[in-house]
Amino acid sequence: MSAVEEKLAELGLTLPEVVPPLAAYQPAVQSGVYVYTAGQLPMVEGKLPVTGKVGAEVTAEEAKDLARTCALNALAAVKSVAGDLDRVARVVKVVGFVASAPDFTGQPGVLNGASELLAQVLGDKGVHARSAVGVAVLPLDAPVEVEVQVELTGA
Q: What is the pLDDT of residues 28-49, one digit of tens each?
């Protein structure tokens, strides 16, 4: 087990299976020393635990937890191409999309679920640049979607 997966275990978490693509794309691709994930939905065992708009059917706290799940799914996607999460030199960028009710403006707080998880698991290597974007709708009516870019060590 990698040191990153040991840290996940300390937090009471396990790395999930890679979420299969919903369309014509790969969950993650490597280009040089970078791995780019596709947008990761908060799938748990092949299903969305909740659907709807944040600020309407979904609370900001629920959405923050869902963003955390998205980050776990992104780590699984990274591992699928990197082979070992200990190869992560740093998380470079996180982009998060929040399906938002028209008056919801708390997108950054929702995306903190993903950002905080990455920092907890990877330490300083998990601190990153980020965009938090409110959108009208996401695939499958998911409340949150997160994509991650990481830099790998040469090993």
A: 999 999 999 999 999 999 999 9
Residue 61 has φ and ψ, to the nearest 5°, of -65, -45
Residue-level pLDDT at 121: 97
String of DSSP letters for the chain: --HHHHHHHHTT--PPPPPPPSSSS-SEEEETTEEEEPPBP--BTTB-S--S-BTTTB-HHHHHHHHHHHHHHHHHHHHHHHS-GGGEEEEEEEEEEEEB-TT---HHHHHHHHHHHHHHHHGGGG--EEEEEEES--GGG-SEEEEEEEEEP--
